[in-house]
Structures are given as C-alpha cells and as structure tokens.
Amino acid sequence: METCAKQLSYDSWTFIPRLERVKDALTILVGNNACLHTPSTPIIAAEGSVQVTSGPEVINIDIEMVSSPPPCPGYPLTISEDIPGIHAYPILLHSRKTLPWTVMISDESVVLVSKSCQKSATTRTIGAYPTPNKKPFSCISCQQLHTNTTVMGIRHREINGAHENTPWAYLSTVGLHAVATQKNHEINLLKLQALNVGRKLLVWNQQIDGWKRLAIAIGKEDIPCIRVLMAVEMHNGYSVFSMIQKVDQAAHRIHSPKDYQEADFEHGYLILKLGGCAAAEIAS
Fold first, then answer.
1. How far apart are CA 39 and CA 106, in angstroms?
2. How large is the angle between the packed helices 240-251 and 226-235, nearest 10 degrees?
3. Which of 139, 229, 279, 280 could form an SS bridge with 272, CB 3.0 to 4.6 Å?
4. 201-244: per-residue pLDDT in tens?
5. How many other C-beta atoms lie within 10 A of the C-beta of residue 127?
6. What are phi and psi of 250, to 5 degrees?
7. Domain ranges of the chain
C-alpha cells in the first residue's frame, strides 16, 4: 500500500477510511488476531497437467497494525505573537451572517473548524496555507479557511486597524472596547460643551436684559447731560448694570453729570485769574 502511494503520488491518508471499513469487516469475521486460510490454488505445469498446491497458505493478520489517522486539528486563528486569537475574533459576526465554520474558543486560542471538515488530518498542504512546525496538518477544507475573505478581513483589521465606519459585528472584543472608550470620551466632551454653552447663554441673556432696562430708564427720565454720563461710563469700561445704577442716581438727582463746553472753560479760567483758586472752586 505504501509503495503504491509513493509511486502514484497519492496521499496515504486518503486510503484510511477504506482501511477502516476493512478493519471493521475483519473484526466481525475473524476477531482481532485471526488466521485467514487461502484456498488451494491450481497450478498448470509445463506439460499441461493441473496440479494443486500441497496445503493452504496461512496469513496472520493483526488488526491493530491498521492504524487510524489522527483527527483534524482545525484551523488555528493566529494573528501575531502579540495579538492572541481570542482577542481578535469577532464573535458577534455569527449573529450577522452565516459562516462556513464553527468556532472553538479556549483561554489561549481560537480554532475554526470548517463545516465540511473531513474529520481526519492530512499530510498535504495547499499553497497559501502556512506550514505549521509539526505534522499532521489540518484537512484541506480547514486549510482553505486561511484564504476565506472573512478570515482575511479579521486578520487585516487586527493588524492594520479597523475603519471608523466598520460595523460593530465585524469588530473584535478589543475593537469594541476601543469604540466604547471613544464614544464615552465624545459624550463627556459634548456634555462639557453643552454646560459651557448654557452658561454663555445665561450671561448673554442677562446682558440683553440689562440693556433693555437701561433703554427704558433713559426713555422715561429727563436726565441732563445723559450723553456725557454714558460716554464716561463706556470710556471707563463699566458694565451695563453700572450704567443703570448711574442713570438711576442721576434721575433722583443724587449724581449730577457735568458737561463742560468751551465757554465754561473760558469762564472758569477768567475767575481763576481774577479771584484765585478759592474763587475758581466756588465757581465750579
């Protein structure tokens, strides 16, 4: 059997299922260790006469010599040494689409098993499948998962990073944690901005209300030299509420704004020259 497999370049594991059936049949017929007797075989002699062999040939068969192939280990999802498969696998993807594999998750690894798995390992590998350090290899169906577009996308997103518009079902647990952290940061930032805008609007409303009150006060009261009062207040940088207070004092004649014209300055200068400082203070 081995010689035929080598000469014909066949995979020896392809004969394993047939040998299993032969093994089961022999077990039923003769047991684990049995002797098969071959019938007498006629032999044609040189003279043309028929001769029969002297006795039956005994063939000893040990059923245990027919070994079964190891089971298929599946396709281990490995991204890199720094990124274990359990952190890279998007488990929510199973709820989004029908996948051609089942997943086995442990504490350290993630193994994908094709739904068309042949259940037995093989000694051959396809071209794109990364050759592991030891044999046997996964079956051909499980090896083909390496070139599956969904599996390639999983590896690409974990190595190069996922796009910001990637659906959440395609993200791994690490990617979902990063998205949740970013969303929380954005929400907190928007909350702080809303508080700042609210405080600004409150101050602006107070300022608008103050200017309205000032306009009403100026319109109701007849205040002399109101223009001078407003000019002095704005020049000194007072707020609108300070202006309202000054206008109220001027309306009750508590504060008297002065409007000095050129004639007033000339009159004061004349009194200063004629009567001195005492007369100028009285005139003012």
1. 56
2. 150
3. 280
4. 999 999 899 888 888 888 877 777 777 788 888 888 888 888 88
5. 6
6. -70, -35
7. 2-65, 75-171, 182-283
End-to-end Cα separation, the chain, in angstroms: 133
Contact predicate 54/75, CB 8 Å: no
The DSSP line for 187-226 is HHHHHHHHHHHHHHHHHHHHHHHHHHHHHHHHHHS--TTH
Residue 253, Cβ density class (10 Å: 0-12 exposed, 13-18 middle, ≥19 buried)? exposed
Q: What angle, rounded to 10 degrees, do the helices at 240-251 and 173-220 form?
A: 20
β-pairing, 75-76 with 58-62?
unpaired
Q: Give tens-digit pLDDT for 8-27.
A: 555 555 556 666 677 777 77
Q: Is the pTM of this model over 0.90?
A: no
